[in-house]
Amino acid sequence: MNSEEEFYDAETGLESDDSCEVSFKDALVLERKQENGVWERRKTLPAEMISRNDFSVWSILKKCIGMELSKIAMPVEFNEPLSFLQRISEYMEHTHLIHKACTLSDSIDRMQVVAAFAVSAVASQWERTGKPFNPLLGETYELIREDEGYRLISEQVSHHPPVSAFHAESLKQEFEFHGSIYPKLKFWGKSVEAEPKGTMTLELLKHKEAYTWINPMCCVHNIILGKLWIEQYGTVEIVNHSTGDKCVLNFKPCGMFGKELHKVEGYIQDKSKKKRRVIYGKWTECMYSVDPKVYDAYKKTGGDSKKLRQEQSCEGEDQDEKPEVHETVTVIPGSALLWRMTPPPANSAQMYSFTSFAMTLNELEPGMERLMASTDCRLRPDIRAMENGDTESANTEKERLEEKQRVSRRERSKDEEEWSTRWFNLGTNPHTGAEDWLYTGGYFDRNYADCPSIY
Asked: 3-state secondary structure string, 96-152?
């Protein structure tokens, strides 16, 4: 088997399934209703987290130092029972922030709420040490949240390199949020580093504004020995292409003794480069906004000079030990709360550290198969088996799907055929001028007659 065939997930076949086309009105009969008319979503998974104690991580990763992990075949024990497309949809957990931004009349006020949304979009990664399943080429995921006023569609548009495209839109035409992600994972001996290449674009339609940014780097420590822990770091620049306002956020690495762990600090400047607001907090907890003069005066008086007990450095020689966190965000007097993370459910630790929102993403109601595309990742048998705690079936199905894709890829190569995306086309982001995958529309018309059979 050549190296190309050893990719973690390969490409898909082109067979079609004519049974997909149904009326969207049928969706109404699927809602599980309570007396107040609200759909009662599940609060737990069918089975607890699969144990990772029965296999050696090092036996698999010792030959992978410096390599991109998407090219390495891995057992499902490394994973969490979600596709990366479902993981992307978690950006929408705090959609209420977008709705709030839509209601604000001042552009700086809107920017600080958009900044809070950008931070909240990565907050669910806290303690999520399982790897989502790599999407199969052509795989899709739809999410409709009438209670939150939006719907989302995502598609795996490329396999080499892996690219996931998504598009979310307000049900009342208030906003659009879209992007394409080119994740790169590398193993560095004691840690796995994830580089989330790809631009996020948020459009506030009423205000005719477009914001763009790129998410921070993410690193999972103690892959071989010790307790797994996550940090995010790097500079995130959010640009309002309509007004020239900019927000610069610094996701701080843990640093010596861990005193910077999880911290985010930055500022908003207008088009004349005058600082208008200071943004600070932790991406695992909350974000605040304060006037720059108040912030500077607070710093000068030593308000942030409390000494933390000396802890093992994140750069320790033996292992990447997780620094202990002794206090939460210190609130500067006069600050305004922008966002606070929703507390995890009580059983989160036994459920892959999922948030309440993540618990619902793979839920499959009776009859939903008739309504969604045959490519929806909720129909993936390997993810479904893992969610049900069946490790053996999950690994068997994963291997079957990988082999099916390899065969399909070889057949297309032999026939000199190219893969055609279904819901997104490669184009140019009108706000950045960079290459981007853009939604072509039509998914929610419910015409899936030409959907490929990938499972």
From this structure: HHHHHHHHCCCHHHHHHHHHHHHHHHHHCCCCCCCEEECCCCCCEEEEEECCCCEEE
Residue of 341, 379, 378, 383 lying closest to 361 (CA atoms): 378
Q: Is the pLDDT of residue 93 over 60?
A: yes
Residue 65, CA distances (Å) to 186, 192, 223, 320 in order: 7, 9, 12, 16
Measured between alpha carbons, how far is residue 293 from residues 264, 275, 304, 388, 438 in Å? 19, 10, 15, 54, 41
- Res. 327: pLDDT tops 70: no
Q: How far is Cα 254 from Cα 261, in angstroms, rounded to an integer? A: 4
Q: How far apart are the first and last CA of the chain?
A: 22
SS3 state of residue 213: strand
> What's the pLDDT score for residue 392?
93
Task: Supply the pTM of this predicted model.
Answer: 0.84
Distance (Å) of CA 111 to CA 98, 116, 267, 297: 10, 9, 10, 23
Paired with 33 in beta bridges are: 39
E strand residue ranges, 224-370 = 229-240, 246-251, 263-269, 275-282, 286-290, 336-340
